[in-house]
Amino acid sequence: MERMRELVDLLNKASEEYYAKDESFLSDYEYDALYDELSKLEEETGIVLSNSPTRNVGYEAVDFLPKERHDRPMLSLSKTKSVDELADWAGDRDCLISWKLDGLTIVLTYENGELVKAVTRGNGEVGEVITANAKTFINIPLKIAFTGKLVLRGEAVISYADFNKINDEIENPDEKYKNPRNLCSGSVRQLNSGITAKRRVRLIAFSLVLSEGKEFKLRSEQFDFLKGLGFEVVEHYKVTGATMHERVKEFAEAVKTYEIPSDGLVLAYDDIEYGKSLGMTAKFPRDSIAFKWQDETADTVLREIEWSPSRTGLINPVAIFDTVELEGTSVSRASVHNLSVLRELKLGIGDHIKVYKANMIIPQISENVTKSGNIKIPKTCPCCNGPTEERAVKEAVSLYCINPECPAKHIKKFSLFVSRDAFNVDGLSEATLEKFIQMGFIKEYADLFDISKHKDAIVSMEGFGEKSYENLITSIEKARTIPTAKFIYSLGIENVGLSTAKLICRFYNDELNDMISAKAEDLSAIDGVGEVIAASFSGYFKDPGNLRVLNDLLKVVIITKDAPQDTTGALSGKTVVVTGSLNLFENRNALKDAIEAKGGKVSGSVSNNTFVLVNNDIMSTSSKNKTAKELGVPIMTEEDFVKEYLN
Fold first, then answer.
1. 63-66 contacts: CB < 8 A, separation 24 or more?
2. Rounded Cα distance, 45 and 47, in Å
3. Mean pLDDT of successive 10-residue segments in the chain (647 residues)?
4. Which residues are known to be catalytic?
5. What is this structure's pTM?
6. Looking at the structure, do residues 391 and 421 belong to the same domain, yes or no?
């Protein structure tokens, strides 16, 4: 198996070099000899890996992922964060301890040595059939040397290295994936298996469910059997209560550099029959238990508070501290969120603080040990030296720059102006905007659409050239036409997001002049627009400077009206909540647009006013599902919702 994997990697790399770069580190003779060696090994072992160059690659696309009930329900495990509890649980019996991988659980079924079915865990009883996608995983065997029916469970995962490589190819920071687990979940459940194939998904087996005609006494024997068939099995070790602390300590050290996302460990009795004899509780099997990592904290010293201004004038405090290692990465800064949090922690320069990563991702301060409270709140903005003021918003006190001409506000406002939900200008990063503003190319929004008069200067800028300039101009010209709601959002009116802009535009039938002259009391009568938003909106258009900028912009852009809403359909005036991952729509914004086109509106939380909750995991125990059930709100899958209300 090691030689087969080596040959597959070598031959695939040679093919990539040859076809993508028209060069190769292998001669034709060498390639053919290695290919023949691989073919012979596949014939001898009866195993063909999914990414073997000997198989014909063909991808499938489907309209939806069919559902299927599991032959055996997939139960969750009881959990602990105590190593002592793990040791007591094991006692003097032989157990297997392994990684608890953080991906998407898949059930594979083989018949007559061929992979015939792959199904996601789903809610534990019903999952989605993703067979075509599973056949593109980079390490699972499509053929095995076992002809009886074989059923196994494994975790589909994407390594940190592959995750980072995929994210590095995405220019827009807002479009980057948050973590490998989310990327893996979306990749596995694609409707087009060609997309899955590009994501380098792996499957790591952790449980043998059925091996027709072959019995095992020990779990360790099952792992050996699966490994012999060509599967990558989860790293595991034999332990007892006496050796538990030492082994968990080794895992805790290894997780810092482990290439696969892991959120803990799994402990199970090696003796299969003994484990079965224990039965199960109402929720969990008694033959295994999960161990969750404690949040890793580190002690450090606060050296500075950096004050970071934003487009709205909000100045965020950011803690700068001595670098510490957390969850395998170096961390030296964390957001303090607002003045209320800063004062509650009584932060001061030189204080000894404890930091951690919330959800193992976002650095946070958990505790201030010395609590000197000597931080001075700046009276002037660090960007423009204009005056600052403290404001209480929703019971939290924050710091604001009140200078309307603060450059930070311009940069952030222009960044929003060209963002995806506004004018959607590709290739115009915040750093580039900052250069354009500093060089005087852009003073107001309309200047962006006349940027070509600075062609010579732009082409000579570092990081730019003729091609980059042409791409930018093409993108700007494409962005010149914009729907009314996105146009309103692009203006950066405080408290007015895209959803609110759509509500206002819909109320005024996309008539811009009516919106400009709207009074605050009229705006606040719109369902979903409160007094604060209404005041911000009407106040923006009362400002002569804003009106001048707006009129200049209207001379160079084309505003289009959205198609009228369906006011007669079943969704007219109804509130829909969407949660979880999607299969049929590219993202939630796309589904949201479809719902709004049918007269509905989308909310982020379930309430008595919710018409339906859309969640592909109907049996989920999430807070939204729980609230929906308590309030009697129907829960529908995306597929059923589309058939019922969007077709």
1. 63/191, 64/191, 64/583, 64/584, 64/639, 65/128, 65/129, 65/130, 65/189, 65/191, 65/583, 66/128, 66/129
2. 5
3. 86 65 59 80 85 65 74 81 91 95 93 94 85 92 93 95 83 67 86 84 95 95 95 96 94 87 92 91 82 82 89 85 81 89 94 79 85 94 89 83 82 88 87 78 90 88 82 93 94 88 89 93 85 91 93 94 72 87 79 84 82 88 83 91 87
4. 100
5. 0.48
6. no
Q: CA–CA separation, 200 vs 163, rounded Å? A: 9
Contact 290, 77 (CB under 8 A): yes
Range of the domain at 16: 2-45
Task: Report yes or no: 564 and 595 within 8 Å, Cβ to Cβ.
Answer: no
Phi, psi of 625 (to 5 degrees): -60, -40
Q: Same structural domain for residues 336 and 282?
A: no
Asked whether residue 111 is assigned to any structural domain, the reply reads yes
Q: Are residues 525 and 426 in the same domain?
A: yes
Domain count, the chain: 5
First to last CA, the chain: 50
Cα–Cα distance, 58 to 132 (Å, whole number)? 9
Exposed, middle or buried: residue 587 (CB in 10 Å: 0-12, 13-18, 19+)?
exposed
The bridge status of strand 79-80 relative to strand 236-239 is unpaired
Q: Provide the β-strand partners of residue 326.
A: 329
